[in-house]
Amino acid sequence: MFNLFTSNAFEVAPAIQTINDILFPCVLFGMIFMFLCVIFFDSSSVLSDEENVVAQSTEILAEAIETIVPEDYLEQQLASMVAVMEQYSQPKVEAKVDLFDVEPEIKKLRTFGARSLKAYCKEHKIKGYSTAANAGVESLAKFMLAQQVKACDVQSFRSKFVA
């Protein structure tokens, strides 16, 4: 019935084949199962230690948050953070534009002459003044007024070169 040995060297007996077919998967499963148990059970103790540390640090953090008084909160922050917080908490102030009468200001600018107005625009690198200068002193004065340049600015500019 069970023929454990065969006469052929290259042939495996059917009884040994049956034992190998049953034992090999069982042994392989057992070895893999033990290997996985070692990995998961050994690292689970490490994870529990890490979980304990996280739980303790969470408790300490919760206690620290409870002890912070709102007035002291800004004092505990870094100076740069406070500066940024103050920067965004203050309302934005729009730039103020000085109001003035247009006609008298144009007359004052025209009195300086085209050469002084061109020199001022060239020195302060105001773009587009040459087009207005080609149209005349009146349009150059209006152009400079549109650029928020007043007669007192041109006067202080001329006084630097005269003195």
Characterization of this structure:
- This protein has helices at 14-67, 70-76, 79-89, 102-112, 114-123, 129-135, 137-146, 151-162.
- The protein folds into 2 domains: 1-69; 102-162, no CATH class.
- By secondary structure, it is mainly alpha-helical.
Please specify the SSE layout and strand pairing:
Layout lengths: L13 H54 L2 H7 L2 H11 L12 H11 L1 H10 L5 H7 L1 H10 L4 H12 L1
Which terms summarize this structure?
mainly alpha, 8 helices, elongated
Please compute the radius of gyration using only Cα atoms. 46 Å
Q: How far from one another are the termini?
A: 131 Å
Largest sheet: none
**Residue windows where pLDDT falls under 50 for at least 5 positions:** none
- Dominant shape: elongated
Secondary structure: helix percent: over 70%
Count of strand segments: 0
Relative strand content: under 5%
**H/E series:** HHHHHHHH
Summarize the structure.
By secondary structure, this protein is an all-alpha fold. The chain has helices at residues 14-67, 70-76, 79-89, 102-112, 114-123, 129-135, 137-146, 151-162. It folds into 2 domains: 1-69; 102-162, no CATH class.
